[in-house]
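Question:
Write out your own:
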Amino acid sequence: MLVPAWVDPVSSYRWYEPEQLEEARLLARLRRAGMPLADIRLVLASWSGTDTDLVRKLL
C-alpha cells in the first residue's frame, strides 16, 4: 500500500522516505487491529484529505 521511494533493482529491497513513517505506523496498527486491507486502503487514501467522516466510520 505504501509506495516505496526507491526499489533496489538487484535485491528488490524497498526504501521509504522519513515522511512516510507516520503512514507506515498507522498501517501497521490497523493491521494488528484486524482491519481488512481494503478498508486500510480507504483510510490511508482519506487520512490526509478532507473526508474525515469516512475515516471515523471505518475506525
The chain has a mean pLDDT of 86.
